[in-house]
Design a protein that fits this description.
The complex is a heterodimer. In chain A, the strands form 4 sheets. A two-stranded antiparallel sheet of chain A has the order 1-8. Chain A has a domain at 83-149: Alpha-Beta Plaits, CATH 3.30.70. Chain A is of the alpha+beta class. Helix content of chain A is 24%, strand content 18%. Chain A is built from 7 helices and 8 strands; from the N terminus they run βααααββαββαββαβ. Chain B is α/β, with parallel strands linked by helices. Chain B is built from 10 helices and 25 strands. In chain B, the strands form 7 sheets. Chain B has a 5-stranded parallel sheet with strand order 3-2-1-7-18. A 5-stranded antiparallel sheet of chain B has the order 21-22-25-24-23. In chain B, α1 (10-22) runs parallel beside α8. Classes of the chains: A alpha+beta, B alpha/beta.
């Protein structure tokens, strides 16, 4: 299947992939509305000092709800997201069967079922899962939220992050070995 | 090909799916003592607390067995295995097998306590246990939970949530003595105290005082006495190895399996909490009773049973839990600091605590409290035995991520299908 692969030597750390991801998964699909009206705006610097997503939301510095995350160290920058593994560790760890492998190979979430136990965050060796504190199926639990990861943009031919990347540092390719 | 699976939880479930992917034709029988559709034991405290809807505890849709073309013998008990004749006996008759998976999970350990056998006490393992406990809460007020492990504390939190007074008694000096170190345990203790749960560590029950089969109070070893009309025993869970042992299959603490999940008996496999498989840090075999290991072992067993040779890399003890508003993730051996370098970050005001134990360049244990951003990267570093010496100073920084890994590690992770 086609998956998103990063080419880190082309990445210029512009974070446009994150913007495109957030906008694509917004209601309005307009950057200004998504960030200022829907409140999906994020502040990377502030959110680092408040790493807990629910706390950050309460403090008005929501963590980026992007599904691809640009990570930097010195001169290295790379945008990574869900690998849509063939035998996903998150699915093997999910404590109530909320995560599943779809028929087309994508790893997806039953959004109404996820209880926010974060077994998936513990299990995912790619660090591709973040909590989404804006959706809570178990409000009685403090800091509840649901799993948030790349869905390969079901409404698009090419995922938004790949489409937007000005340096072609993300590609959408089938690298499966038959 | 005739497949028989004893047990209907994570290991049995993922084995079933792996068998069906590999062998669309074979006959699959699942035998389970529990009558329910495949469900998660890790959801029963949320059921007891009443914070989730019942459908959320089931692991697959209602038509799962139908879709997988599985004969599900639920509410049936396997009573014996004859490895020579390759037959499983059940209370519903005999089941011949070509490949057998024992995935019988764990069973609660109940210590001898004076007066305990005279009263009705509760375990907290199955959905049925949770239902019984919930019914027992009606008209009762004072619960005592013996054992401050994961199950005991989750049960205590749920009982508190439904309005009971809850006292937890734990023999060890800290809560979660197996899963966490002293600092992390202390953070959890404070959360429990804030929720109004009373915890007595370094103590145990000396006597259960009862009247007409109903408990009225418990005497503690330390001399105290606590009122009690409901007792939950959550001291621990042991691998459920009786069937295997009686059949002459080699057992130790669990049913001993190799990297293909094969037991000592031909065509008999074991997986999940009942199995004792290879562990990746020590290279020894040990039971690792956690969901991701049960699922992975079940999947590996299923593939091998159906004729697709797959080897298991070895398990890593790993857990995620939350009490109060605090999430905790742990990997490996979190208390064994001997001959190791220990890296720590503590921010008590925000309840953040992170610790890594590094031996000869390799991480052997890790705890993350509250800040669990991208912690799964540590699982990769531990399981793939990656030397962290060259980027050690970044490991516990808030920015630590994929970009800090050596380029060749990143390449292996992100340029090929996983």
């Amino acid at each position: 299947m086609r998956r998103v692969y990063p080419l880190e030597e082309r990445c210029i750390n512009c974070h446009l992939c994150e913007v495109a991801c957030i906008v694509e998964h917004s209601k309005t699909k307009s950057p200004v509305s998504a960030f200022h009206v829907e409140g999906l705006r994020f502040n990377r610097e502030d959110s680092r000092t408040v790493p807990d997503p629910a706390e950050a939301l309460a403090a008005g510095v929501p963590k980026p709800l992007t599904r691809t995350i640009v990570q930097t160290a010195g001169y290295v920058s790379v945008s990574t997201n869900c690998r849509h593994c063939a035998e996903p560790d998150c699915v093997l760890a999910c404590k109530n069967g909320s995560l599943y492998v779809n028929e087309d190979g994508r790893v997806l979430l039953h959004e109404d079922k996820c209880v926010g136990c974060w077994m998936c965050i513990m299990a995912c060796r790619y660090g591709a899962i973040t909590p989404n504190p804006t959706r809570r199926n178990v409000p009685a639990v403090k800091n509840n939220g649901i799993n948030h990861h790349c869905d390969l943009c079901p409404e698009r031919e090419t995922p938004a992050c790949v489409w937007v990347c000005p340096t072609k540092a993300l590609v959408f390719e089938d690298r499966d070995v038959p | 090909m005739n497949y028989v699976i004893i047990g209907n939880s994570f290991a049995g479930l993922f084995a079933t799916e792996a068998i069906r992917r590999t062998d669309p034709e074979g006959e699959i029988h699942i035998v389970s003592r529990e009558p329910q559709h495949v469900y998660s034991r890790a959801m029963i405290h949320e059921m007891l607390a009443g914070v989730v809807q019942e459908p959320m505890v089931y692991l697959r849709d209602w038509d799962f067995y139908q879709k997988m073309r599985v004969h599900a013998l639920l509410g049936r008990t396997a009573t014996g295995i004859d490895p020579k004749a390759q037959v499983v006996t059940t209370d519903a008759g005999e089941l011949p097998y070509d490949r057998l998976l024992i995935a019988t999970g764990g069973k609660p350990f109940v210590p001898p306590i004076n007066g305990l056998q005279q009263v009705q006490y509760h375990s907290f393992i199955t959905l049925e246990d949770a239902r019984k406990l919930k019914a027992a809460c009606e008209g009762r007020r004072d619960a005592v939970v013996l054992g401050a492990g994961l199950i005991g504390l989750q049960c205590a939190e749920a009982l508190r949530h439904v309005g009971m007074n809850v006292v937890v008694v734990e023999m060890a000096d800290t809560v979660l003595p197996m899963a966490l170190d002293a600092v992390a345990s202390e953070i959890i203790s404070r959360e429990l105290a804030e929720e109004g749960i009373e915890v007595h560590t370094g103590d145990t029950l000396d006597l259960v005082i009862s009247e007409d089969g109903h408990p009225t109070a418990c005497k503690l070893r330390s001399g105290g006495r606590v009122p009690c009309d409901l007792i939950v025993i959550a001291v621990g869970v042991r691998p459920n190895i009786d069937l295997a042992k009686d059949a002459g299959v080699v057992t130790d603490r669990g049913i001993v399996v190799n990297e293909r999940m094969e037991t000592s008996a031909p065509n008999v496999y074991a997986a999940g909490d009942c199995a004792q498989g290879p562990e990746i840090i020590t290279g020894m075999t040990m039971p690792i009773p956690v969901i991701p290991i049960a699922s992975t072992q079940g999947m590996i067993a299923g593939y091998n049973m159906a004729g697709k040779r797959r080897a298991y890399r070895g398990g890593l003890s790993l857990n995620a839990m939350q009490f109060g508003g605090v999430q905790v993730v742990s990997y490996g051996f979190v208390k064994d600091e001997r001959d190791g370098e220990v890296l720590r970050v503590e921010d008590p005001a925000r309840k953040v605590y992170k610790k890594l134990i590094i031996k000869d360049g390799l991480i052997t244990g890790a705890i993350f409290v509250k800040d669990i951003d991208r912690v799964g990267l540590f699982r990769h570093l531990i399981e793939r035995r990656i030397d962290v010496t060259s980027f050690k100073e970044h490991l516990l920084s808030p920015e630590f991520g994929v970009a800090h890994l050596p380029a060749e590690v990143r390449k292996e992770m992100f340029t090929t299908p996983q």
